Amino acid sequence: MGKLMEHILKPPEGEGDQDHLTDIDLARLAEGQVTEVERRDFLAHLAGCSLCHEILKETLSDISPHLAEKSSLTSRIKRFPYALAASLAVFLLLGGGLFLKTTLFTPQILTASLALDPGLKALLVESDDQVWSSRDRVDRLAGLLRDKGVKIKSLDKVVMTAPYQPSKSFIAPKEKLKVRIENGVAYLEVIEDKDQ
Prior knowledge:
alpha+beta, rod-shaped
């Protein structure tokens, strides 16, 4: 802009006894902060005053890098909310999808194999029901499982593959309780412990 301005406004070599533009007026002109009438008057003065022309030329060369930097910073500041919103949208889409996949679509299955001790046996022989309807009995099983290190929050229902019939022999094989918990339902099966 400086070379074009210099070419257009190049004053004649001689300078008359004219009043010069103030530094403030020259700065306003360089920044484009003047009215149309002021701009015409200032340009007319600059066409005939080499001193004001040189001051304006120096002012333009000084502020050009500053204006470019300010413009760049301003555009980055203006784009920041959009970049932040886009980043947040991507985060929510990816994170939300992962959250839904792990919590809603992946069934929470927990399995355990426990030695059948007297406490568990007593609970299993309370009734021949394969589906336990007593809330108290379901909660007691949940408590026993927690005591044995099975990490469960709560049980809603218990289903046995077959009613438990304890052996009446003294030389009966050791038994294990296989537990599979899925979506709050415990599936129980008593099997012979072949490791013993």
